[in-house]
Amino acid sequence: MQIEKRLNNHYRRWNIDLTYEEEFLKFKNRLIRILDKFLGSYLISHSGVDKRFFEIFKLHEADTPEVKRSRLLPSLIDRQLSNLRKEAQGFRATEEGFGDTSVYKYVSQCENSQQLATVLQILFWVLEEQHHETQHKISEIIQEIRKISVLTPSASFKVHRKGEQIIIYPSGDQFLDEGIVDFVLSGLEDYPDTGKAFERALKIYQRGEASQYRNLLDDLRFALEQLLQKVLNSKSSLENQKEKRLQWLKSQGLHVQIVNLYQTLLSQFVQYQNNAVKHGENFSVDEVEFMIYLTGNFMRLILQLARQVDDAK
Question: Has this prediction a pTM greater than 0.70?
């Protein structure tokens, strides 16, 4: 077993919850060590690579440029003193390291995962241009990033390799996010109260606030219940709206097995909420993302069917 997984299991056994800020700092520090180990010497001996990174990052930053302005020319004595200083500096034995690079400078200045992902993506773009020299180093870096991501999931991101290209994605599956989460958020614009609860749950998860995961799961249940109440024109809870919900689903032309599957899954969803959330915090943090997407799937189907009903009017 990887030591990262063992350490993560230790955190769980002892209920060690880190805030997002703590997780991010740990992830960034571990990433700096990885970059120093696999790229430090390379960047020093290939200063053009670090310079190329600096140029692209400055293009991204688009900060106020420094331009030449008129100034008093130094006197002859000043110039001579300056030359003497430079000559004296030349006798000092210095050895450059990763800490002298632009890559280190901008990685260390990052304050959140989004900034860090941007810096790292630019670095991968630059290394891609030197693929024949850096492909082994890139493979090592990706492998190490995946290891340390186990320890700080809320502050991490996903790194995918597609041929010579390296693409960094936010945590969470891009396909599921676009097909489920984005669709649901868009559809819930017509149900503002429901939308607020679902958005609140997503924000808790995005911030990695493990101490608030019970509230997150409560919000998921509330959002689904509110949506069904609006669509079914019923004030009943999820448990007590079964017959009306079953009748409505059947009336939408769904296959009987899909209706039965929806009902069965929703029944299990309610039992889980009651046993693991409502009457005690008996859930695992590994279950939270699954519950987000499951709730999103429940809501997506209802929103699709409700939209068809409205369009038919």
Answer: no
